Amino acid sequence: MEIIVRNAEGNLSAKDRDYAQQKVNRLNRYFHQANRVELVHRENKVDHHASHRIEITVFADGYTVRGEENDTDIRAAIDKVSHKLENRLSKLKGRIQDSYRRKGKSLPTLLAEEQEIEVPQPSVETEIKVTKQVFLEPMSYDEAALQLEMVGHPFYMFRNERSGQVEVLYKRNDGHYGLIQAEA
Fold first, then answer.
1. Does residue 104 sit in the same domain as residue 142?
2. pTM over 0.70
């Protein structure tokens, strides 16, 4: 598994980098093939106190799982985010297993091999309450941002006027915009 560590406005020591890699390597047991893991460290200094923000994104077995946490201690932030990812991965594995069982299929080898991981059964099935249909009008990023602000939703789906592709514009926690583009 390739682990990419990025420092964005922060310094991650070699010891902390090794600690993060140990924690991330524990997540390996949930995957058959983990392609890569991205770890981003940001250090924010407010009133002479450092706050560490750790973001970990795991790309494996066709899934993308992401978590982020903040703490004044960098190792505590790493522990929190790795714990959050373990919970998410355990829930994902449970849903996959439940889906295969409902369809009457045998579990894929990547899930059947691991006996030591206890997976809680999902308590609630995904229930879709509302279905909406939208007309995807071709528009620029500026127009999509304006529409996003007008509807008051956290995201806005539109057709890019240049590429013709369906894209999703969303508002990030930091106030900036993010864009999701489908990969073929």
1. no
2. no
> Which of these, 88, 97, 44, lies nearest to 66 by C-alpha position?
88
Within-domain flag for 125 = no
Q: How far apart are CA 91 and CA 106, in angstroms?
A: 19
| 29 and 99 assigned to the same domain | yes
DSSP of 120-175: PPPSS-------------EE-HHHHHHHHHHHT-SEEEEEETTT--EEEEEE-TTS
Query: Each residue of 23-48: pLDDT tens digit?
Result: 888 887 777 776 788 888 888 777 67
Q: Is 57 exposed, middle or buried (0-12, 13-18, 19+ CB in 10 A)?
A: middle
Does residue 82 contact residue 90 with C-beta atoms inside 8 Å? no
Task: Tell me the per-residue pLDDT of 79-97, one tens digit each, with 9 for 90 and over.
Answer: 999 999 888 888 877 777 7
Does 86 share its domain with 149? no
Instruction: Locate all alpha helices (DSSP H) within 26-73, ordered by sequence.
Output: none
